[in-house]
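Researcher: Dear colleague, please comment on this protein.
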Amino acid sequence: MSIENREFSRHYARWRIAIVFDETENRPTIHGHTHDVSLRGASVYTEHNVVSNTPVTVLLSPPLAHEGERQKIIEIRTQLAYSVYAGSNYCFRIGLNFIKFKNDGLQILKDKLDNQILLSSIGVKPA
């Protein structure tokens, strides 16, 4: 049995995500989806093993709260924490530690997670 001492709770969320490497790494953008998200990091599924010792930029695309809402993309500088093969899903699971949010990205993420908690509390399955 393990005890988690996380400052922020993780929330199940299947949101689209893109991992963008700095130009100096000369690598293509990796696309995937989140498994869970917190205000400090995320775990992500991708078809590629992602390894980098330098920070990368993540573009996180949370679902729309309602029809007609404009899509908000959250841009975050992150550090890759781990990459393991998730055999049951035939893909890789990547751990990301959030370093810095661009503009109001942290507030947008907080609002989306708060909304997801509210919906879960009334029995609506999160996106």
Observations:
- The chain has one domain: 11-121.
- Helices lie at 105-121.
- The chain has one helix and seven strands.
- Residues 11-121 form a domain with the Thrombin, subunit H fold (CATH 2.40.10.220).
